């Protein structure tokens, strides 16, 4: 068998297995693009494998096959864990995310069939390597193959330039948009990796589509929010500052910065409403809860979570989308921006000024800002990123907290709450940020999860699989930690003056979708609904629950809090929005699927499923896709161009 046929079978097979079984992209048009764009890779590898003597060429072929096989396997495990493909833009963050070997082991076992299938080409090449025919090209043949590669590339660029229709057309993905999963769907994993490496080394300027947000005003908001009997304060109409953007657009010569100003100028700001200042001058305790999801809320197992979820503000359509594990959830909830891997890398390395971040906003309003984490304080570079969020006082395991509590894996969230509350409750006004860890995977009773073992007797008779029981047991520690916190606030007489906000960093992604559905109240899909969760926003002084049916997600948490606490901000400078405003709701996911008040869009199948809340215009989906693409782009551009430093004085 000639080597070109072996290479063609190898590459096409690996790409198809990854596309159908890992990314699960079923769009036939994208499949055609993927096959087309593998041609130049096949031609290139064929040329390399025919340049040398047969022995050297075989070594090159087998070595390349080993490298490709391992890379496809690594991407499979990474995608299974974090719902995003691995990017070279965030090697440091990926290292942290993969520290837990037991989780990796579980992911390998869950994907064992796919990994075996990916290994078959390597086994095939090793078995037939003696029968593979290498031709060893002369100079004339090499020139002919090089010419063929060049012609192929020219044809591909012609195809790219013909395919300009749509936000995620091959043209936009190649020149304007950095959406790695979309790149894989369109160009295949090998080509998208080459693009990722080039963009990591040389940088990449995403471009916004400014004629967007028509979807914001095209359709009335059918979701009604219950209003309090008496408005708390009377304020101007919009959450916006006088930025004189028209002048900035006129004066700016940098095309990228000008584009950002144009985008901000096109955004509809959120209205100040009857809930503006609702919690003014109260304290805030904000909890990012490891692995918390609505499936953990149970009246008997987790009574405090149940109480807080069903009182205070009750958000019935809230999502916690996965963006690279805990650090993605943390960034979303505390900055109101979308955390792609490149953005998280920028946050970690460049330490940008994020003036509206949780700690910064409240500090500016006279609050004392403290943060606590009951695991290694340097994890995800938090010794640096906490400062960008506005928490100069930050304590974790390794810089003080280990002296106050047992720091062995898994540490206790109850202990963290118990030993830290006295540090801040004497302050006049405080905002405290907790990152919990007791709910972390793996979910088992075999020794990898001491928290689950601690509560095993409470769940042993439940009609669920072992991982689900262990997950529910691990979340009981969070429940007891909340109980401890509330009791200590009550003892000190400041419970009524303190608001508790809680969101999960992500759903328990080491559970399979079948395991999630064992305990879910309805059947969830593995792309969108698996991310549905709760946003707890509770104050003991609230007499009746306030139900909110509008769609919201992690990026909406910060602007919702800023509005409720009456803190001045410009809503156009956050990608998320106040869920209590009149602006239509939307939740955005890492693969660029989305849920709006009118239905769900699945990016892979390009299917919009209406939910019956109202009719939508024929351009609704395309307008929303433009808006979503812009939100991704601007999340990065706001940091890249120091927008907060430039505009927020």
Helix count, DSSP H or I runs of 4 or more residues: 27
The domain tally reads: 2
Strand content: 5-15%
* Largest sheet composition: 8 strands, mixed
Number of strands: 15
Poorly predicted tracts of residues: 212-225
CATH class of the largest domain, named Alpha Beta
Mean pLDDT: 91
Question: Which CATH architecture of the largest domain would you pick?
Answer: 3-Layer(aba) Sandwich
Instruction: Using the coordinates shown, work out and report the CATH topology of the largest domain.
Output: Alkaline Phosphatase, subunit A
The residue fraction in helices comes out at 40-55%
Question: In the CATH hierarchy, what is the superfamily of the largest domain?
Answer: Alkaline Phosphatase, subunit A
Strand order of the largest sheet: 5-4-6-1-7-9-2-10
Shape: globular
Rg (CA only): 26 Å
Head-to-tail CA distance between termini: 69 Å
The secondary-structure class comes to alpha/beta
């Amino acid at each position: 068998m000639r080597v070109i046929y072996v290479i063609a079978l190898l590459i096409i097979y690996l790409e198809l297995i990854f596309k159908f079984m890992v990314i699960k992209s079923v769009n036939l048009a994208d499949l055609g693009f993927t096959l087309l764009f593998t041609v130049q890779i096949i031609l290139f590898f064929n040329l390399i494998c025919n340049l040398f003597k047969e022995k050297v060429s075989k070594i090159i072929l087998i070595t390349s096959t080993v490298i490709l096989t391992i890379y496809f396997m690594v991407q499979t495990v990474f995608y299974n864990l974090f719902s995003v493909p691995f990017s070279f833009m965030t090697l440091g963050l990926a290292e942290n995310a993969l520290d837990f070997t037991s989780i990796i082991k579980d992911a390998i076992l869950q994907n064992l069939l796919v990994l075996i299938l990916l290994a078959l080409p390597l086994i095939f090449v090793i078995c037939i390597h003696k029968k593979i025919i290498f031709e060893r090209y002369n100079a004339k043949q090499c020139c002919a193959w090089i010419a063929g590669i060049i012609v192929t590339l020219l044809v591909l660029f012609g195809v790219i330039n013909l395919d300009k229709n749509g936000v995620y057309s091959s043209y936009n993905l190649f020149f304007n948009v950095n959406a790695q999963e979309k790149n894989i769907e369109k160009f295949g994993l090998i080509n998208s990796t080459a693009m990722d490496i080039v963009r990591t080394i040389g940088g990449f300027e995403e471009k916004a589509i400014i004629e967007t947000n028509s979807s914001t005003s095209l359709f009335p908001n059918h979701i009604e929010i219950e209003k309090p009997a008496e408005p708390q304060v009377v304020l101007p109409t919009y959450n916006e500052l006088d930025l004189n953007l028209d002048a900035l657009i006129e004066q700016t010569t940098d095309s990228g910065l000008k584009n950002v100003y144009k985008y901000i100028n096109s955004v509809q700001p959120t209205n100040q409403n009857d809930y503006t200042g609702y919690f003014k001058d109260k304290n805030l305790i904000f909890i990012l809860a490891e692995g918390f999801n609505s499936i953990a809320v149970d009246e008997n197992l987790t009574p405090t979570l149940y109480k807080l979820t069903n009182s205070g503000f009750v958000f019935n359509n809230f999502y916690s989308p996965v963006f690279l594990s805990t650090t993605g959830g943390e960034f979303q909830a505390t900055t109101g921006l979308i955390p792609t891997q490149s953005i998280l890398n920028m946050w970690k390395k460049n330490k940008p000024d994020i003036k509206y971040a949780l700690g910064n906003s409240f500090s500016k309003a006279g609050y004392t800002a403290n943060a606590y984490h009951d695991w290694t304080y340097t994890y995800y570079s938090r010794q640096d990123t906490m400062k960008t969020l506005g928490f100069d006082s930050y304590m974790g395991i390794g810089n003080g907290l280990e002296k106050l509590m047992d720091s062995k894996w898994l540490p206790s969230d109850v202990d963290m709450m118990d030993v830290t509350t006295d540090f801040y409750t004497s302050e006049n006004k405080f905002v405290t940020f907790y990152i919990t860890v007791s709910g972390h995977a793996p979910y088992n009773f075999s020794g990898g999860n001491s928290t689950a073992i601690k509560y095993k007797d409470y769940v042993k008779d439940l009609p669920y699989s072992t991982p689900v029981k262990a997950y529910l047991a691990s979340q009981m520690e969070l429940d007891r930690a909340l109980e401890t916190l509330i009791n200590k606030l009550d003892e000190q007489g400041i419970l009524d003056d303190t608001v508790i906000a809680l969101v999960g960093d992500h759903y328990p992604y080491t559970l399979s979708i079948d395991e999630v559905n064992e305990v879910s109240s309805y059947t969830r899909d593995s792309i969108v609904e698996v991310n549905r969760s709760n946003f707890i926003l509770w104050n003991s002084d609230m007499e009746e629950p306030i139900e909110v049916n509008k769609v919201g997600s992690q990026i909406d948490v910060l602007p919702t809090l800023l509005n409720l606490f009456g803190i001045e901000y410009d809503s156009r400078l956050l990608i998320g929005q106040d869920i209590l405003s009149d602006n239509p709701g939307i939740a955005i996911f890492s693969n660029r699927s989305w849920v709006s008040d009118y239905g769900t869009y699945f990016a892979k199948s390009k299917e919009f499923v209406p939910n019956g809340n109202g009719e939508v215009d024929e351009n609704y989906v395309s307008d929303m896709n433009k808006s979503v693409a812009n939100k991704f782009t601007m999340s990065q551009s706001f940091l890249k161009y120091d927008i907060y430093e430039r505009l927020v004085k």
